[in-house]
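To the structural biology subgroup,

Please find below the input and predicted structure for tRNA-t(6)A37 methylthiotransferase, which we are adding to the shared reference set this quarter. The sequence is reproduced verbatim from the submission form. If anyone notices a discrepancy with their own records, reply to this email rather than editing the shared folder directly, so we keep one authoritative version.
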Amino acid sequence: MPSQCAEELDDIEDIATFEARLQSTKAVILPHAQSAKNKRNTLPNNTDEEIEGKNQDELSSNAPARESIYLKTWGCTHNSSDSEYMAGQLAAYGYNITDLCEDADLWLLNSCTVKNPAEDHFRNMIEKGQKLGKQVVVAGCVPQGAPRQQYIKGLSMIGVQQIDRVVEVVEETLKGNSVRLLGQKKVNGKKTGGAALSLPKIRRNPLIEIISINTGCLNACTYCKTKHARGNLGSYPVSEIVERAKQSFDEGVVEIWLTSEDTGAYGRDIGSSLPELLWQLVEVIPDGCMLRVGMTNPPYILEHLEEMAKILNHPRVYAFMHVPVQSGADRTLYEMQREYTVGEFSHVVDFLREKVPGISIATDIICGFPTETPEDFEETLELCKKYKFPSLFMNQFFPRPGTPAAKMTQIDRKEIKKRTKKLSEVFSSYEPYGHQLGKRQTVLVTEIAHDKVHYVAHNKYYEQVIVDMEEDLMGKMFEVDIIETGKHYLRGRRVAEVSSPNSTSPLPKGCVSGLKTEIFQQDLVMAKSAFGKDRIFLLVVLVGMLLSFLSKQLAT
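Predicted structure (tokenized):
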């Protein structure tokens, strides 16, 4: 992933104006630089800041960065959003964001703590980077939730609410220092959503904007390690979210994803609610562009069902909800401390299916929770047979260190795998999309399929529709006839002319969102080249351009 969108300079006079604009951007993305000479702080309760090493000078360099950064992400959409923001700030500062880990000077690894395999992959990447002699910075839920683990000892760490300080951490790490920033963002002593949504970012997909509307949650599930990292609920103001959405559409985005650990709980800490936010968002979504609401737990959506049904029927909102049930047995849900019953979950599904015709509801199941009996698991199977969820995320239970469930008597791994296989067989026994065959639907294309010969589009119900790559259809909306259905997809044939939901072209892939002018992004390319050349020559050029500028000003 490149750090800028242009390939070369168009005019040498751009050099003269680069430095001033660089300082303006540094004032936005580097507001917290601190001197920590000869000082080592402790790290109690995961909230303090720590810088240790032998090169602890204050960040004061005016030259743009030239090193390359490799950024890898594990986990949820919230983590993906955090990585987009970190990449954007680093690129805006002049770093080159690369997909080639071997070529990078520093690896930035954004971790997930939900399951053991994700953390195992994270640990393996740290070891690989160290063996290759790379500088390594760790971010995400693993260091935030358990910063004293031996395998990350001595590494620089970026907390989940400190992503706006990634440039500081990277600069200090490249100097040979170890930096830990794990504190929470607070206003008047109250936790907020996190780093500002207006920060520069590099979208993984230029057509899709991911907006984190809140962090943390109100639950205390006995199996969840993420709570240790993301903490209690902290919501962004409605106005800040709406402004980010407006900016996204101004940059050619056609689809917005709202994400958090629990979107249904949004606003409870600031006197707002998810429906209030959604009604304001639909007012700024252009016709043809779409909004997807992220995962919500059952307890916090129950009281909003009437309003949510109206919103999900809105033409600019996908009729899709992700509502994890985790178990079909009340006894297991009680032991998980999920704070709802199977009956309440069923009410959510039944109500939305009645009020939002065709709605697609996805859910999650944990197989092998420590107290889950064979009878409990059978109830889970019956629930899945009843509703035939089109998307069913099956997870084997893994005990996460520090959680109450980890201290419970564990079920044998072979039995957990056996239950997971049974659930998979239930899921494979039905065809969720057969009723769509022959229907005409409107779809929006946002991706290229893995086979590189098809586009990936979604219909109103956020069902995946595969379309032949016959022409440039990216970011376009059009009608298709459904000519084939599979377990995980539909296939459509275009039958109508295409329309562009957004008249603004999207930013080229790898461009930094949030920078005010295209000229500045070109300046970043110039800087990478110019500052690597002979400094005396560059000084002569800059002085010459400055004198030329002053003479023109005096003449006028």
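Summary notes: The first strand starts at residue 49 and ends at 52. The chain has three domains: 68-185, 190-430, 435-499.

Regards,
Lab coordination
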